[in-house]
Amino acid sequence: MGFCAASAVAALHFRSWCLLYRRIGLFSSLSSPKRDLGDRKLEPPHYPVLSVVSVLLSKSKQWMSLSDALCRVGRASCAAIASRIWALLAGRGTGSAAAEMSYGSSSIASGAKTATRTFDFGRTHVVRPKGRHLATVVWLHGLGDNGASWSQLLETLPLPNIKWICPTAPTRPVAIFGGFPSTSWFDVTDLSEDGPDDVEGLDASAAHVANLLSTEPADIKLGVGGFSMGAATALYSATSCAHGTYGNGKPYPVNLSSVVGLSGWLPCARSLKSKLEGSQDAARRASSLPIFLCHGKDVGIGEIKVRNTVPYRRFDVGSVRSLKSKLEGSQDAARRASSLPIFLCHGKGDEVVLYKHGERSAQVLKSNRFDNVTFKTYNGLGHYTVPGEMDDVCKFLTATLGLDGSHS
Q: What start-end ranges are recorded for coiled-coil regions in this protein (predicted)?
């Protein structure tokens, strides 16, 4: 089949698909002013037209399953996917605002291969501070979006002392889309805390965030935030920071000073509860256990003579140090959790990530020693953001990142 014929077939496929979804209101969120995030315009990443034509022809049998999946996700996420597909066919790029990032060594670096999967992250977009650099915040986009779109919105915020880093998630098959590839921080089957957890994908994305922040100067305060799935990834980073390790047990390398989540949910809620409860139980048992020790002055260091027995029974001093580090680690985790400021926002009209999931996530965090969680409700707000919500985010970041007395 020649290029012209292939293009024609692809165009017919896309036109039929667009007509179908226009009837069910797929593009309403693109045309509605209240869903337009102010003046922000979505700028999809660049892909060659020939690649898109090839995908459309080879994946034609998957359109019906994709259609069902898109309907389940909701109009807002569908709009992001539709915007990307339209841009793919039009051959649009990301513009000149993108900045290529270099990555230092970390437990899971950009493009690294884990035991079973490889994660290739997209382009990272940076918004430089307009004033004196006091803080750096990594902001994570939602499912099907990219870093460029949010960088344009963040650049307009009245926060001149913050450097914004907006990475793009890997493009991977997503279960909730019936296996259709999309930018996604982790695989997901259900947009709530009740779905199965892709810990490997979450660890890779959280490590990517930490990797971006690890190169910042020591006197710069660090934060992470996001929207929808980006908010879920930000919260996973927050719990990893508090516990001191990723889900795979490797140490989390940076200290976060502020966390923001818009229209998101808490992944790995069940494992978080068991981890923190285990730490609390260990500290509680240690503090309440009565122990009576007797020791003779003539006994050498590191050995205890048990009466009427030969030889000496020795104890390992190293095991004492290990016990101390474990108990101190439990106390440190509880202390980090209780002091980490987290700001969660959710609209009651959200039909993609339901309001009850956002509310439940805040409750789980608070019940697990995250004492500095603020959950704010917005009546009538759907799965998008509005200026009033972003104003609240600005106030929170100003307070938690020490920007109150800053001078531009």
A: none
